[in-house]
Amino acid sequence: MNNSKHNKISRRKFMGSLGSIAALTIIPRNVMPGMGITQPSDLLNIAAIGIGMRGSENIRGIAEPDVPGIQATRTQSLPYPYTRDQLNDYLAGRTIRNADGTRPSSNSLSGPTDMSNFQEFLAKAKEEAGVVTAKGKSANIYALCDVNLDSTAHNFKSYPNAKVYQDWREMLEKEKSIDAVIISTPDHNHATIASHFIREKKHVYCEKPLTKTIFEARKLAELAKEYDVVTQMGNQGHAREGTRQTVEWIQSGVIGDVREVYLSTDRPGWPQGDLPRPEALKIPKDLDYDTWLGPAPDKPYNPVVLQYWRGFWDYGTGAMGDMGAHIFDAPLWALNLGYPKRIQATSSPFSKEFLPQSTWVTYEFAERFTPGIGYMPPVTVTWCDGGLRPPRPVQLEDGRKIKDVVYIGDKGVIMHGTHGANPELVPAGRDLKEVKPWLSRTSNIYEDWIGAILNNKKSCSDFSWAAKVTEIMLLTNIALLTKGSDITLEYDSDNMKITNLPEANEYFHYKYRDGWIL
């Protein structure tokens, strides 16, 4: 962990600072009597690590910029091995989505050809992706940290009063006034950063997936419970009306017993497949590449790696890691599913560096007894991505598009979009006013987390839930990595172990680079 750049702290000094952990006491933030004004000193001090695209959206969900209107610049071309068509599809589609949730087909970087609808497209995209911009401040953006000072300069300028750091370890050591942290780095850095902040009694909001490995997910859940901090995974759908409505419909027996669920996404919207790692290039002076690598293997820099990290085995978790939490969440809740007993996967070709372009995965969940509901039968859940879609239910009307999540019950079908959006019955037309809401409702994912900290409560998608969702998601990649064994994996969740293929268990975690610990 030693590095001469930026006068970083040594591993010994950093670890020593963790030995004297002081308990953090959150004093309730009170409103000035009779005035309705929250004092700046009464706001939680929030740090943010990784303030690029998603990180930028996360901090804006907590507090609107102090200096609005500062825009990022974006490079619109990247080197081999990616074709121009691949890059066009990705760059045009990652911020713009059609009304039905699909990305528009375009050969230009500007998105839809009908630019008169651009703002409508963009508004729908932000709503679908859970982009929330706070009106005012629900907390104080106290410190910002990113390994790339150049590409994120616009965010530092948007919050000029925030402390600026390039190495999160230095920030954690120096800034004792931090109450909580938002982690929006690539997947491979989530666990190491979160674990160190939790041990310092800082509350944590972490982007999905919670971690890169199953071992890390379980460890973070254990640490959050041990240190009694308020945690939240960036799973916006868990806080939304559509998800709660789906849970109430299914658990009220609207479509009877559910034995099949189909999940699908058009992701990845970035290059994956049987591709080589791009060639080594010189590291830019404004980039702390060593800290970006974190616990991952020491491999050469290329800007493609930093922009498309989701598709690399070393850093990301592919389409499932990107969208699994948003799509798997409602079925797990509505059907009270435990961990799968069996899982099998197939896919298009992939390389040692990149995940596959498309996958088809089947999970088998056991029967279970749910208090207040009773017996619930076994469920088979099928996941597909990369443009694949599941078979159309026989009940689905001609011309009606299949949605991201489909529940097949013995009395009907329910569909909804990603993030639990807009649940609807198949066939349409039934009046569901007889289903009375019983689940508590919450505000958006950011306000829920801040409110939970101030009121010393659990958040709606805390690490005890997030770790389970993440574990089930990541079993997909273990099944992919072992698909050549031509076997359906049998999973013993109590012992976190594949029982019928011992070599599969090596994928539950990996050896960190020297100097990095969980």
List keywords for this structure.
single chain, about 525 residues, alpha/beta, 6-stranded parallel beta sheet, about 30% helix, about 15% strand, disordered N terminus
Summary, kept brief:
The chain is of the alpha/beta class and 518 residues long. Helices cover 28% and strands 15% of the residues.
Description:
The protein is of the alpha/beta class. The protein contains 14 helices and 17 strands. The protein has a 9-stranded mixed sheet, covered by helices on one side. Strands 3-2-1-4-5-6 form a 6-stranded parallel sheet, with helices on both faces. A two-stranded antiparallel ribbon has the order 10-11. Helix 7 (187-199) runs parallel beside helix 8 (214-227). The longest helix has 19 residues, at 463-481. 44% of the residues are buried.
Helix/strand/pairing class, anyone? alpha/beta
Radius of gyration: 23 Å
Biggest sheet details: 9 strands, mixed
Strand content range? 15-25%
Span from first to last CA? 13 Å
Average pLDDT, rounded to a whole number, is 85
Uncertain stretches = 1-39, 79-116
DSSP summary: helix tally: 14
Helix content estimate: 25-40%
- Assembly context of the chains: single chain
Shape: globular
